[in-house]
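Exercise 7.
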Amino acid sequence: MNYTGYELIWLFFVYSFFGWVMETVMGTIKQRKFVNRGFFTGPFCFVYGIASALMTVILWELEGRWFFLFLGCMILGTVTEWFTGKLLERMNRQKWWDYSKKKWNFDGYICLQYSLLWGVLGTVCVSFANEWFTALFRMLPGLAEQILCIALIAVGIIDLSVSLAAFFRIKLNRQMPVVYLWNRHLGAAARRMGMWIVGCVQRRMEKAYPVLLEAGHQLSREGRFAEGCGFYKLFWIFFTGSLLGDLVETIFCRITVGVWMSRSSLVWGPFSVVWGGALVLATVLLYKDREKPDRYLFLIGTLLGGAYEYICSVLSELVFGKVFWDYSEIPFNLGGRVNLLYCFFWGIAAVIWIKVLYPKLSALIEKLPVISGKLITWAAVVFMIANMICSGLALIRYDARSSGREPEYAWERWMDIHYGDEMMQKIYPNALDT
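Solution. The predicted structure, written as tokens, is:
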């Protein structure tokens, strides 16, 4: 990938703008009047920017392999749209868009025809449009490039703040706390200006998404710890899934390769965060569909699991400069990052998790006392965050040592002392330099 950070920011906003144009044109034609689509107020639809950025960063090595590039863009775009819909639904307890009446839809948020459109648009962007827009950006002087990107980021942050204020004003039907701060510190003029801006955005959002005015469904609360599918439940699923994933992979390697080896993602303890993250995603996206047929869950698990593993492989290589697994010798592999057999394993795991393991683990988690459960959870959260930070720094320094770079800072010298090459090779025996 030959794009700089500024160029990725530029591409993000370019595709966000064109996504907004496409959504606005479609909405205007459908409603026969101008409709400013999107959560944000400005001419941006950031779901398109996010999807395009992911495609650019993750799928760049598939250029020229049209079928796999199309399939990857289709999956990435579809998953991004699904996540966005799920996030907005959690904020308002309502669907912001609904494809339930379309054939081959899933959960009302995605459908086959738009997934195919994601594949076509993504393939065009990665193969052709990225180079066109980047060439246009490179025509600017270096300082102008930086100023433009910083200005776009500032506009995006302001737009996000105002849009969130308008959204919560609609939801709560009262002024946001930020307005009270304006009352106290900036005076009546600033308050009126702020209320006018938020009011304009509120009216725009109500026209574009009338569903915001409807009363959302509220989850029942019985006073149990981690009930429903909130933060506490998902964290313990991540924690437990990371432990179980490391155990499963360790045993699998012993059976297939004949040796015991570390399969941990972190330097402190047997945790495979790829598995933990996979179970969290499967829970968030599939637990409402646990009553659907096994073949349905298997198919979704196969597709999403393969995409998830591919993304994790690319990102870990980009960030840490290491390849943590290589399936090049297994038939039907894609760049050595995923293979068809293991994608089927993801599908089987999705069925077993949703149908068998999740209900039992969920009930077990909810048996924890409320107060002590929260205290234990936050202690574990702090531990896992520190573990991930230390592991990330150790891997960064491990890659730097393999490149022959001497330590410059105190943390690098500390990592060299406590996490030298011998220990890192023991923790990550399959890590290869890129």
